[in-house]
Amino acid sequence: MNTTLDHRSPLVFDTRELGRRPGALKRLSRTVDAPKDLGIEVIGVPEGAPIDLDLRLESVMEGVLVTGTAQAPMKGECVRCLEPLEQRCEADFQELFSYPDADDRSRHPAETGDDAEEEDTFSLEGDLFDLEPVLRDAVVLSLPIQPVCREDCPGLCPDCGVRLADDPEHEHEGPVDIRWAALQGLAETISDGEKDELSDADARAGVDEKQEK
Fold it and tell me: For the whole model, what pTM was predicted?
C-alpha cells in the first residue's frame, strides 16, 4: 500500500516487525528534534530542542497500541516577575493507531448514522504511523498554564515594577486614595487663592494709610 508518510521522518515509526500478531511487543528509544510551535503563549519547547522518547508498541486486534513518555526542555517566562525560566517537562501518552480496515469492522451499527459523534482517531498508513499529533497534544497539555520561577516568587512591585525578589525590603509611602486626591488639589488651590487675597488686602491697606497721612 502506498502511504503519504515518509519513513525517514524522525516522528514516523514503522510497525512492520510487529506484523498483525496480537500481543507482539516492541520497545524503542529515540531522540528527535522538537517541531515548531510546541507550546503555549508563556512557555514551550523551543523548535529543534531534543525530545527524548521511550515507546512501547503493542500489536492488538484493532491495530497498534502506542504507549510512551516524552521528556524535553522548555523555556518561557515567570508569570509573576516576567523573568526568563528554563525547566523540563515530562509527558505520558497512549494512543491506538488502528488498521485501516479495522475501522469499519469495529464501528457499532448505531454509530454509522449522521448523528454519531465524531472522535479523533488515528490510523496506520501501511505499516507506518505519525506520532507528531499525539506528541504535540501530550506535551502541550503537560505544560504549566502559569509557570513561575519559584513557588514563592513575590512578583513585581505594583507601583514601580521592580522585582521584589531582588529587593525584599522594597516599599513605598502609602498611596493617596484617588477619591481624596482631587479634594487635596482643590484645598491647595483655595489656600493659594486665600494667600493672594491677603497679599492684595495688605497692599491696599498700606496705600490707604499713606493717603491718610
Answer: 0.69
